[in-house]
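Need residues for this backbone.
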């Protein structure tokens, strides 16, 4: 087989290699447990997993998907597979986007893939534990491609002289397939609410004005799990703590103002979730390399090509500019005041408080411009009689991008590594069989276990146990505490710390108390309460108590709400399979039209 036939697969193989180079240490036995990332051997389809708990549904449908899959496959393997697939898809999608938007050769495609995978945004979100957000990030270039095809097909359908019946039938089939592919992209991105918002913005921008109603309807369907959970639970209808705006504002890096940090795809609010190279003036050099490469190709990306793709490229650059400028403005004094005003008056506006998340929207535009920049430099060298071709130019740019962020390699400086849970977690989960929610000690949502490393981690109990675990949602950020939505959890925590009696817990539907012994945190007078409870299990790591007389206090509408939430998740799952089904159908149709057999040779 000729090498030319393999060439389209080179960007895919290269992107997979980058993904494995980043997450390599995590692929050993064990589980991801780093700040907000919690993977467990098995999780359960609790009310919280469906988004029906006290807290806003921020991990929907992620938690429900893991609950279903971990019943048959180890949950740690599922998370690792999704994470590798996300990074792989991000790079490959950026390469395909460069090929479709610019007709770029292999070298510039690899530059685009490197920009998409090897950047501070990916490093910081991995360190923060936002593995599922990276699925929404990875879906962006594919969403652009699907929306662009829909826009092009709608323009062709509207053009005069297209009344030939067979051609119209084929075009209609292709249009249906294009919409199905877009549905799949939006569903993949919709693994988290933020990912859904990212992909929705891109789809609505690229698909064209006449397709906005259908695109919006499709986005709502792909976002059904968390939209439904918000409506049923009412958690998202409450105002958010305005302290979260300043706490989660984008942050300036050394040598860079906030705007420069965001333009370099960095600037996360948590200074501890940053690669070491971004804590020095090296961040300035890395940002300069990226922005120079993007700036060199921007003019070519705006001007070259046919009108349809040129319009899309301009739209991507406009989205990129907004994704950088708006979070930078949101970090200013008056920007913080506006944000505080919005979250206290508009339900659900708290979803926008971590503004640096939305810098992800710059990735497709940056990737296309970087590919154009590589091609521009190579063409300029050839026009001046130079001997440096596109492959060498691409190699130089790829090396510059990787070497200016060296600590992304091999687990972001080793921080991304598997952990092993004590066996006591499985014993505790097996013993929780009676009704009642679970309250946890010490107070607070974050833990520092001996086996989890130096960084604080989210308590794994809500994903380990088969009953709902009450969590306040309070987040310690930059020396302050941002309040959460968990009213019942705050009450339970107060009762435990004040040494309340067992009947007080039972009256509030609390059936279990779990004590995590190897992590620091406030215990208050909880010994007084624990002395009134029935010990069920105890070892060096965990102790489980049963609250006497506890019953299930869920309202009569609870079962109906669960069924509705599950139906929304099923709709999302169906859309998730729409893209591969459409691609397979299109491929079979193409082979049939070309006279090839539809079965494998």
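Answer:
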């Amino acid at each position: 087989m000729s090498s030319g036939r393999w060439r389209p697969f080179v960007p895919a193989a290269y992107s997979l290699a980058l993904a494995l180079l980043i997450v390599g240490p995590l692929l050993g036995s064990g589980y991801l447990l780093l700040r907000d990332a919690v993977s467990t051997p098995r999780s359960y389809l609790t009310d919280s997993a469906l988004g029906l708990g006290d807290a806003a549904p921020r991990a929907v449908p992620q938690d429900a998907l893991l609950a279903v899959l971990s019943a048959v496959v180890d949950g740690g393997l599922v998370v690792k597979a999704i994470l590798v697939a996300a990074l792989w898809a991000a790079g490959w999608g950026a390469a395909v986007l460069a090929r479709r938007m610019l007709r770029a050769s292999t070298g510039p495609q690899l530059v685009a893939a490197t920009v998409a995978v090897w950047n501070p945004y990916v490093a910081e979100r991995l360190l923060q534990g936002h593995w599922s957000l990276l699925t929404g990030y990875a879906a962006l270039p594919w969403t652009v491609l699907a929306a662009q095809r829909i826009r092009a097909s709608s323009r062709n359908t509207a053009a005069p002289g297209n009344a030939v019946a067979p051609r119209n039938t084929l075009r209609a089939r292709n249009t249906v397939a294009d919409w199905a592919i877009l549905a799949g992209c939006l569903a993949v991105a919709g693994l988290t609410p933020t990912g859904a918002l990212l992909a929705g913005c891109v789809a609505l921008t690229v698909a064209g004005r006449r397709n906005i109603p259908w695109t919006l309807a499709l986005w709502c369907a792909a976002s059904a799990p968390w939209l439904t959970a918000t409506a049923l639970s009412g958690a998202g209808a409450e105002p958010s703590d305005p302290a979260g705006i300043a706490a989660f504002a984008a942050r300036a890096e050394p040598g860079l103002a906030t705007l420069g940090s965001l333009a370099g795809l960095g600037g996360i609010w948590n200074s501890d979730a940053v690669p070491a190279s971004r804590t020095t003036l090296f961040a300035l050099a890395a940002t300069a390399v990226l922005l120079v490469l993007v700036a060199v190709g921007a003019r070519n990306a705006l001007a070259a090509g046919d009108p349809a793709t040129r319009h899309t490229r301009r739209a991507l650059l406009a989205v990129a500019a907004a994704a950088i400028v708006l979070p930078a403005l949101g970090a200013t004094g008056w920007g913080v005041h506006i944000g505080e005003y919005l979250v206290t008056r508009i339900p659900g506006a708290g979803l926008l408080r971590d503004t640096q998340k939305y810098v992800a929207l710059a990735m497709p535009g940056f990737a296309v411009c970087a590919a154009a920049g590589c091609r521009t430099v190579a063409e300029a060298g050839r026009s001046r009689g130079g001997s440096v071709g596109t492959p060498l130019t691409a190699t130089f740019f790829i090396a510059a991008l990787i070497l200016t962020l060296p600590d992304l390699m091999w687990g972001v400086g080793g921080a991304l590594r598997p952990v092993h849970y004590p066996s006591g977690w499985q014993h505790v989960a097996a013993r929780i069989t009676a009704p009642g929610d679970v309250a946890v000690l010490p107070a607070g949502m974050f833990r520092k276990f001996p086996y989890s490393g130096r960084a604080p981690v989210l308590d794994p109990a809500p994903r380990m146990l088969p009953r709902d675990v009450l969590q306040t949602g309070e987040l310690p950020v930059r020396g302050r505490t941002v309040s959460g939505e968990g009213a019942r959890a705050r009450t339970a925590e107060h009762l435990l710390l004040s040494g309340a009696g067992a009947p007080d817990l039972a009256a509030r539907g609390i059936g279990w108390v779990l004590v995590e012994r190897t992590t620091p945190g406030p215990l208050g007078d909880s010994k007084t309460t624990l002395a009134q409870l029935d010990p069920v299990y105890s070892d060096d790591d965990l102790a489980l108590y049963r609250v006497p007389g506890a019953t299930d206090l869920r309202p009569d509408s609870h079962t109906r709400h669960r069924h509705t939430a599950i139906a929304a998740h099923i709709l999302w799952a169906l859309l998730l399979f729409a893209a591969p089904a459409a691609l397979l159908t299109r491929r079979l149709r193409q082979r049939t039209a070309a006279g090839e057999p539809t079965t494998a040779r």
